[in-house]
Amino acid sequence: MDFNGDVIVVTGAGTGLGREHALLLGRLGARVVVNDVGATLTGESLGERPADEVVRTILEAGGQAVANNDSVSTEEGAMGIIKTAIDTWGRVDGVVNNAGILRDRTFAKMSLDEFRAVIDVHLVGAFLVTKAAWPHFREQGHGRVVATTSGAGLYGNFGQANYAAAKMALVGFVKTLAVEGARDGIKANALSPAGRTRMSDATLEEEFASRLDPSLVSPAVAMMMHRSCPWSGETIAAGGGRVGRVFVAETPGYVNPNLTVDDLVAHQDVIFDQSTTFVPDGVPAQADYLLGLIKAAEK
Ligand SMILES: NC(=O)c1ccc[n+]([C@@H]2O[C@H](COP(=O)([O-])OP(=O)(O)OC[C@H]3O[C@@H](n4cnc5c(N)ncnc54)[C@H](O)[C@@H]3O)[C@@H](O)[C@H]2O)c1
């Protein structure tokens, strides 16, 4: 795979997964904006510029890269990140929204500040950076977006109501960008990664963590950033060398034109029966599915 100089922004690329994405994209011939604000796991300033080391490593390997130290979670920061791409190379072809922090706390004890801080980096950050790149994508009739979701968002996780809310929101975000971007050659997908980093280290057992070299996640990002990528609106799980599709599906369920709550209670097994499922690729498809089920029940 060759990126032929496509300009790709990777946010939060100073450490962890983002660093691996940036290094791989640089090796594959992309010109990379390595963004990182230099934050601790909880989002406080480290007083360091970790993006610089990643840029040096890409340059030493013969690639092209530039550092940016703005925060994704402010409008000025997000615009500054895209401005770095435009000022350096005159274009931007893709954005990997990877920057993230944690403020874990049980829901009972979680403050509004803890909820907002996490939403601001993961969700608002992805909105702002993608928003700043979007006019360039539309103008050139080409663009790629990846948002980083998480098993915590897709399936729920103890102590992470803020993080899970942000992460599942990003799935809806890319699905909608996929619909709206289709006519302009823009493709948007979500990545659900599993990689050994400072973020995962606190939670993973050694038997699992030792198999999760973070560089094994990055091929999925390269695939989703490349011009040849056929996917849009998808959620791809990647970790430990495994890549799979994650999807939201509906069961046919129970249909009764005269539904009562007693019917519902009596047919829970039918409602939860997953032997056949449908994966809508948008709201129109979901509506067609529902209409078909209602009509079938009327017969
Ligand atoms: N590691 C995993 O297994 C895993 C699993 C699921 C999801 N994720 C997600 O993958 C992404 C990367 O996580 P990681 O494990 O590499 O974590 P990490 O803590 O190693 O890296 C996150 C990076 O984001 C940067 N960052 C934080 N706030 C920022 C801001 N406002 N602007 C710019 N940069 C900022 C940090 O400085 C850091 O370098 C995150 O979105 C995380 O939620 C990771």
Query: Strands across the major sheet, in which order?
Result: 3-2-1-4-5-6-7-8
Strand content: 5-15%
CATH class of the largest domain: Alpha Beta
Q: Can you write the helix and strand succession as a string?
A: EHEHEHEHEHHEHHHEEHHH
- According to DSSP, the number of beta strands is 8
Which hetero ligands occur in this complex? nicotinamide-adenine-dinucleotide
Briefly note the structural class of the backbone: alpha/beta
Determine the N-to-C terminus distance. 53 Å
Largest sheet: 8 strands, mixed
Radius of gyration: 21 Å
Count of individual helical segments: 12
Low-confidence stretches: none
In total, the number of domains comes to 2
What level of helicity do the residues show? Answer: 40-55%
Taking all residues together, what is the mean pLDDT? Answer: 97
Structure commentary:
By secondary structure, the protein is of the alpha/beta class. The protein has two domains: 240 residues, 3-Layer(aba) Sandwich (Rossmann fold); 38 residues, no CATH class. Helix content is 45%, strand content 14%. It is built from twelve helices and eight strands. It has an eight-stranded mixed β-sheet, sandwiched between helices. α2 links the parallel β2 and β3. α1 runs parallel beside α2, α1 packs across α9 and α3 runs parallel beside α4. The radius of gyration is 21 Å and the shape is globular. The termini are far apart. The site of nicotinamide-adenine-dinucleotide has 34 residues, from α1, α4, β6 and α7.
